[in-house]
């Protein structure tokens, strides 16, 4: 089974990278760690935590989303509701709430979800965001809980991956065929080499 280390990055879209940088880097305090780009294209990454980032493509003509409240049902095609960021504790939650409100940004009251306490806001692109602090003594990863009165058929099988649901791998890719193709990121390696040489 693959070992996951977190969300490497969520890839979002903006039409205004500068407003996005001011919000995510300067207001929320997430470091801008990678910037790829050329005329008509940017892809910037902000560090959330040791293993997690959020990234934004900037494409000309992109407009902010229509505002949609967190967790409210919609109809038609949909794949995304909101992004939730974990914070270490309750004090961090209140600090973020105070910063958002001091900046003139809307922020919800603190909501108790039983295993987390959360606040809700929107970024400049109208992306719905949540910040969540763990409730001390409640660890749903250690002790999963199902309170759905009518859980789906698959959910009734329990929290752990079920064997034999998908076919096994009988022909893994041979080492000789494992090729990594060049993408935009080759420029990052070149830039790091120049930095290491003091250029």
Mind explaining what this structure looks like?
This protein is α/β, with parallel strands linked by helices and 199 residues long. Helix content is 18%, strand content 25%. The protein contains 3 helices and 8 strands, in the order βαββββαβββα. It has helices spanning 17-27, 90-102, 186-196, and strands at residues 9-14, 32-38, 41-49, 52-58, 83-86, 111-112, 116-122, 128-134. The strands form 2 sheets. It has a 4-stranded mixed sheet, with helices on one face. A 4-stranded mixed sheet has the order 5-8-7-6, covered by helices on one side. A hairpin with a 2-residue loop joins strand 2 and strand 3. The chain is globular. The N and C termini lie far apart (43 Å). The mean pLDDT is 89.
Quick overview of this protein structure:
The chain starts with 8 loop residues before the first strand and ends with a helix. The chain has helices spanning 17-27, 90-102, 186-196; strands at 9-14, 32-38, 41-49, 52-58, 83-86, 111-112, 116-122, 128-134. It contains three helices and eight strands.
* Assembly of the depicted chains: single chain
**Share of helix among residues?**
10-25%
Our count of helices gives 3
**C-alpha geometry:** globular
SSE pattern: EHEEEEHEEEH
What is the rounded Rg?
Answer: 21 Å
User: Strand fraction band?
Assistant: 15-25%
Query: What integer is the average pLDDT?
Result: 89
- Structural class by secondary-structure content: alpha/beta
């Amino acid at each position: 089974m693959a070992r996951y280390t977190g969300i490497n990055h969520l890839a979002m879209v903006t039409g205004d990278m500068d407003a996005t940088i001011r919000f995510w880097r300067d207001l929320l305090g997430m470091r801008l760690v990678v910037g790829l780009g050329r005329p008509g294209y940017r892809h910037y990454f902000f560090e959330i935590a040791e293993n997690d980032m959020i990234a934004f493509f900037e494409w000309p003509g992109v407009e902010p989303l229509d505002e949609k409240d967190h967790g409210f049902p919609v109809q038609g095609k949909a794949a995304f509701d909101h992004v939730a960021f974990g914070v270490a504790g309750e004090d961090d939650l209140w600090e973020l709430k105070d910063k958002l409100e001091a900046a003139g940004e809307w922020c919800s009251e603190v909501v108790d979800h039983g295993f987390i306490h959360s606040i809700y806001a929107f970024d400049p692109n109208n992306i719905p965001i949540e910040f969540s602090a763990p409730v001390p003594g409640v660890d749903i990863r250690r002790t999963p809980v199902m309170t759905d009165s009518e859980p789906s058929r698959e959910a009734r099988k329990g929290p752990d991956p079920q064997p034999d649901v998908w076919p096994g791998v009988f022909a893994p890719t041979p080492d000789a065929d494992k090729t990594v193709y060049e993408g935009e990121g080759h420029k990052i390696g070149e830039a790091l080499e120049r930095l290491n040489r003091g250029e």
